[in-house]
Amino acid sequence: MHAKVRVQSTINGEPQEFLCEPRQSLLECLRDILGLTGTKEGCNDGNCGACTVLLDGRVVTSCLVLGVEAEGCEITTVEGLAKGNELHPLQRSFLENAALQCGICTPGFLVAAKALLDQQPNPSEDEIRLWLANNLCRCTGYDKIIRAVKQAAIEMQEVNT
Amino acid sequence: MKAQEYTVVGTRPIRHDGADKVTGRALYGADFQMAGMLYGYILRSPHAHARIRRIDTSKAEQFPGVKAVVTADDFPEVADRMVDLGEGDTPLSYARGNVLAKGKALYKGHALAAVAATSVHVAEEAAGLIEVDYEVLPCVLTAPEAMRNNAPIVHDDLTTKEFGEQTGRVSNVAEHFRYAMGDIEAGFARADVIVEREFHTATVHQGYIEPHNATALWNNDGRILVWCSTQGSFVVRDVTACLLDVPVSRVRVTPMEIGGGFGGKIPVYLEPVAALLSKKTGKPVKIVMSRKDVFEGSGPTPGSYIKVKIGARKDGRITAAQGYLAYEAGAYPGAMVAPGAMCIFAAYDISNVVIDGFDVVLNKPSTAAYRAPGATNAAFAAESVVDEIAEKLGMDPLDFRLKNAAKEGTRRADGPKYRRVGCVEVIEAMKDHPHYSAPLGGPHRGRGVAIGFWFNVGMPSSCTISVSADGTVNLVEGSTDIGGTRTSIAMQAAEVLGITAEAVRPTVVDTDSVGFTAVTGGSRTTFATGWAAYEAAQDVLRQMKERAAKIWEAEAASVVVERGVFRSGDKSMTFQELAGRLDQTGGPVVGRGAVNPRGVGGSFSGCIADVEVDPETGKVTILRFTSVQDAGKAIHPSYVEGQMQGGSVQGIGWALNEEYYMSDAGSMMNSSLLDYRMPTALDLPMIDTAIVEVPNPGHPFGARGVGEANIIPPPGAIANAIYRAAGVRMNRLPMNPPAIMQAIWSQRD
Amino acid sequence: MTLPKVYIPTLLRTLTGGRASVEVEGTTVRQVIDNLDRTWPGVRDRLLENGKLRPNISVAVDGEVTPIGLIETVGPASEVHFIAAIKGGVPAPNPHQRL
């Protein structure tokens, strides 16, 4: 039995403390220890993006981050996008544009897209596709996802002007 | 429904499960938690073909944290018999065998044993301590090889069946069937041009992002409770009960949200294993497949060897067509070769046809359905040959197809005549689409087209609707929602009741709580479960008309309802007003619908693909792509478009990159999402869609199933585009860069 | 008087003297099969097992696969086809065990 390590981090703006084994990934910690099951496992080797979270603002696949590496970090998951009852513009735009079918990849896309819009408020179609290239979707063919990100970008810019 | 103008059907409401799905609150199978839950891990065969002499689980059982280990010996002993769990009869031993192998491992990845422990890491470590004594046997990995007389035999008890007749010949060919119509020799004799080609397609996987998962609890009252992501909770119930030799009433399946299926989540893999582990431990046991397990231990779709020969006259009329389809079933019989044979020439009116189909077992994972199973392979072959003939005759490829297009009354090779179908309309929509006449603008570019057909299915569905006092309704149904169907079903009920889609609250429930409902698959859900909802809504209206009559002290027959307003004489009441008065007029109103509908309408689909082929690397870039499909009536156009786009992109991946790259020893060398290369956002342009609506005369709203037909034409269209871009006709899938360069170099020599 | 027309699956045509279709009396699929077998013995055993349609065989009457098999009504001018029981990857409902 591997001795557990205490990890302290900030998750979706709230301080969180948890115990985990050194071999457990951040993805496992989020889902199985903290009950934040919104982040999904699709491949466990960094190739599908379903487990995408933000780690100190960086887009990472949480299956390739160890839980112990989250010590002292700020983590954003899909559960942290909405403000109380109000959906994030990306979340609303995904629904309005039917940018999800089975929805399993959606949390990863939303987190990755949020990071994109934080960095580049007016991305072109090519920039959106490049940024989201590590998020696999098997249902939609990506078309409506791209449109949803574009629409959210426009909406968020209008709010800011 | 008399009105052709609908209020709800044809609009684009937000899906009812939307808030949950974009906030991460929606619970998928792997998210399920239960007190005391243990975690399971499955040990899989490293060999493609081996006799299992002995399995010693003792060391694993003693490993700290391990609570139980099971093998096939833990299945209750029962005399082998035939069971109907899929496409026809199968021996119970085969059905159990794929879940936990007995006697022989038939493919690399074949499940042999399972461990339940306090964590998945402990279970995996302990599984490494299970000792298996194998006698490795020679393996066979392609259909032509498996069909040879001296091929290694996969099942000693499998004999070839020829349309209902057992030949008694032990072989790897489980079944040979033939469709024949007219006089094929006379047909070819009349042809001015004949093209005959061979094709090979590699095994591909449905590629759903969510791996298989299941949690089972063998409860203290003897009931087996299951929570899983599945396309069919009643299938899981029936198969689990059958394999464990218990009555179906003992099993309850609660469908969790599902992260993609495409046919691959119809077979049952984990539930019986989890149940056996739960029986031994007295605790709930959750098993989730790894991505590697998904590739090696679930059901990809058949690779195939196909020969197509088509003859046509100078004026463009096809005079004869012949097909030979040998499909890899994998380790157990049941390749979807018959649907491939039904669809291969289904878009054309041909009087002289012969199609031979072979269901061939070999040492690969046992195949499952993949979105229009069997038809994509067949269309790649047929549409390439059609393209070649059109070129030889100097005809535009769409005009050639129009000249031969199937119509109402055309007879298909498997026998039945078409009812009203939209093949002509789809081809004309392709011709009229701006894409078809747009300039290509550059060297090494080409445009290709292809069409395809899928028959769609009906099958049973059930639904109940309860009216709330505020004029909204609860709708209970049993079709797991993979792509937004709870909303398309709710919309049909809303249309009947004259209320908004938002006023309907759909829920997908467990197998105890709703009448039998067949799988979410076969493009049936919006069609059939929608019909059950339609019937339930009509039942609600019937009852509410009686209540209105009571209130107005009038004859029930005098009450009419239209678009949610009840009228009798000069009196009227809205659905909402009447709903508020049900309590005082006799109590709750609950409507029910249970259907096994006929009137299934097939769907034709076509696509136009523009590609650019890099002559130095063979890389194919999709420049522009348009998908056209006959939806009959698009209940929710956004989700119809979504199906067309999703199926198109799966077809693009199938065409260009996806394959099981097998070693000679039968091991998949690319069992990760890095090397099993599915399209990413960066690989694709926007996917334009054009929905054609040739109403299905059989359905209340004219709907046809749309989920599947759209995956069929892309590989053929892309092959035809590559020919125009690079001058080579590809006869293998995938058409990846090495394959294209090989073809270009061969041509140069 | 018109009679229902039964289309003979290719691999069974050896039993019907090579005929691709045969006109046969009957008002249900079962009757049609029984009458077919009277003239062309052996056909029924290839289509039925233990009195039921073989699980890998479906019946289409007038172009539509019938969900009720042998008890489906057949009209005087109907076409009857026996085709592979394909449900597009969709398993048939399992015959349920006793409680």
Reconstruct the topology from this structure.
The complex is a heterotrimer of chains A (161), B (749) and C (99).
Chain A (H helix, E strand, L loop, with lengths): L4 E7 L2 E7 L5 H8 L18 E4 L2 E4 L12 E3 L12 H8 L9 H14 L5 H7 L11 H18 L1
Parallel strand pairs in A: 1-5
Antiparallel strand pairs in A: 1-2, 3-4, 3-5
Chain B lengths: L17 H6 L14 E7 L5 E7 L1 H5 L3 E6 L10 E5 L1 E4 H8 L4 E2 L5 E7 L2 H8 L3 E6 L6 H4 L12 E4 L2 E6 L2 E9 L2 H6 L3 E9 L11 E6 L5 E5 L4 H11 L7 E5 L15 H11 L3 E4 L2 H7 L6 E9 L5 E13 L6 H7 L9 E9 L13 H18 L4 H7 L19 H10 L1 H4 L7 E10 L6 E7 L5 E5 L7 H13 L6 E5 L16 H28 L7 E3 L2 E4 L2 E4 H5 L10 E6 L7 E11 L6 E11 L6 H20 L30 E6 L21 H13 L5 E2 L3 H12 L1
Parallel strand pairs in B: 1-16, 9-11, 12-31, 14-15, 18-19, 22-23, 29-30
Antiparallel strand pairs in B: 1-7, 2-6, 2-8, 3-7, 4-5, 9-10, 11-19, 12-17, 13-14, 13-16, 17-18, 20-28, 21-22, 21-27, 24-25, 25-26, 28-29
Chain C lengths: L4 E3 L13 E3 L5 H11 L3 H5 E2 L2 E2 L3 E5 L2 E2 L13 E6 L15
Parallel strand pairs in C: 1-7
Antiparallel strand pairs in C: 1-2, 3-4, 5-6, 5-7
Summarize the structure.
The complex is a heterotrimer of chains A (161), B (749) and C (99). Chain A has 161 residues and is of the alpha+beta class. Helices cover 34% and strands 16% of the residues of chain A.
**Number of helices, where a helix is a run of at least 4 consecutive DSSP H or I residues of chain C:** 2
- Beta-sheet strand percentage of chain C? 15-25%
Spell the H/E element sequence of chain A: EEHEEEHHHH
Uncertain parts of chain A: none
Measured as a percent range, the helix fraction of chain A is 25-40%
Q: How many distinct folded domains of chain C?
A: 1
Count of DSSP strands of chain C: 7
Number of domains of chain A: 2
3D shape of chain C: globular
Query: How does the major sheet of chain A shape up?
Result: 5 strands, mixed
The rounded distance between the terminal residues' Cα atoms of chain C is 49 Å
Number of strands of chain A: 5
In CATH, what is the homologous superfamily of the largest domain in chain A? Beta-grasp domain
- Supply the CATH class of chain C: Alpha Beta
The biggest sheet of chain C, with number of strands, parallel, antiparallel or mixed sense and barrel status, is:
5 strands, mixed
- CATH topology descriptor of the largest domain in chain A: Ubiquitin-like (UB roll)
